[in-house]
Amino acid sequence: MATLSPACPECRTALPADPASLTSLTACPGCRTPLRITVFPAFGRGITLGPKAEKLTGDDEAACFFHATKKAVVPCDRCGRFLCALCDLPLAGEHLCPTCLQAAQQGGNTPAPLDRSRVRWDRIVWLTVLLPILLCWMATPVTGFAAAGIAVWRLAAPPSRIVRSRGRLIAGAIAGVLVGVIGLVGLIAVFSHS
Amino acid sequence: METRLQNDPGYRRLRAARWNWRTTSYWLAPDHLLIVDAVGVMERYRRFDLRDLEMLILHPTSSRRIAVWILAPTLAILAGVTAFLGYLALTSTTEYAGIWALISAFPTFLLAGALAWVVLPGPFCETQLRTGVQTLSLSGLIRLPIAERFANELGAAVAGLDFAGPSPRPESSATPGFPTAEIAAESSLPNPP
Fold it and tell me: Which of A164, B29, B70, B115 is at 20 to 30 A from A181, Cα to Cα?
């Protein structure tokens, strides 16, 4: 597949074949809109196609589990099935077959480089701790301990990819217990006084 | 499908931008760019292998000029009114002039703040990231100086990569010593249909 030719995002006029000349703000030849383009080495290289699966040429060769007529080149690192070059999905140092990859994704055990989303349990815990303090402090004996419970329950859940959410989760659990205890003491004090 | 991304790399934050109830942040790993869209308690990830990035296009827009054209005259009028009311409050015995001066000072300061927010961080821009198969608008990068800094940092990260490096599938059919039919026969796995 050929590389997409660069075009002005405003007027779609084709830009010079060598966009490296637009490294500083330069007017588009079509609409005079200033543009700055940072070109990376991948530009113009096109898309690298993967290898084609080779056909079996003799009886002494192993066949792909999914394509009986194709030569196996590697076993799946999870199920051990032999895979041809087409079925081999190299992922973060592992070689997976399509079935294992699909099973991992459906089972919530997606290989780390492919996970698309994660729940920030630390935020949920901290919201559960802090919101009742602002809205209705009498609920804090329940919500504080509930937050601590959620934190303990989700401690082993995959943390955020970018922040240390596990530390925040532990801090949230401690804060939840503290808030729960303080709320309980306050509640007892209020009721005993009245 | 070829994924060369590292399993658990250390990320360095390039930029974060809050847009309404959504935060978009850009994180740089040694081999890929991670775009994180945080909505409430969910984080959604998009990864771009640095070797696949083709270009980053910065396109300054006229939003700042338009905003300044609207905000500056309005601010001038409001500031004039506030100054006049303040002058009246100080020099005459006009009833309620001081209160009206305070009332008009509030939107004046709000408008001045808005104008400062528009002018000080630099011109607005649109930023597009292009790979061989897609063009992505980077919603968090709307100021030219910030986008230029982002482009420079991304460019430096890409320049540090080895593009001649390993072929996409080093363990392809050329791999010597791969199990043959004899080993397959010894394996407990069922034979392919």
Answer: A164
Q: In angstroms, rounded to a whole number, what is the distance separating the alpha carbons of residues B91 and B183?
A: 102
Tell me which residue of B126, B14, B118 sits closest to B75, measured CA to CA. Answer: B118
**Residue B91 DSSP SS3:** helix
Averaged pLDDT score across all residues of chain B: 78
Strand, coil or helix: what is B61? coil
Same domain, yes or no, for A33 and A57? no
Please determine, for residue B1, whether its predicted confidence score (pLDDT) is greater than 60: no
Confidence of residue B109 (pLDDT cuts 50, 70, 90): very high
Q: Where are the alpha helices (DSSP H) in A46-164?
A: 98-106, 121-135, 140-153
Asked, for residue A116, whether it belongs to a domain, the answer is no
Half-sphere exposure of A65 (CA within 13 A, CB side): 20
CB A121 within 8 A of CB A156: no
**Is A38's CB within 8 Å of B151's CB?**
yes
Task: Please tell me the class of the B12-61+123-159 domain.
Answer: mainly beta
Q: Is A6 on the interface with B (CB under 8 A)?
A: yes
- The pLDDT score that the predictor gives to residue B187 is 44
- Per run of 10 residues, the mean pLDDT along chain A (length 194 residues) is 63 71 73 83 74 79 87 88 88 82 72 76 93 90 93 87 86 94 92 83
Q: Which residues pair with B49 in a beta bridge?
A: B32
Interface probe for B, chosen from A31, A40, A71 (most Cβ of B below 10 Å), is A40
Q: Is A107 on the interface with B (CB under 8 A)?
A: no
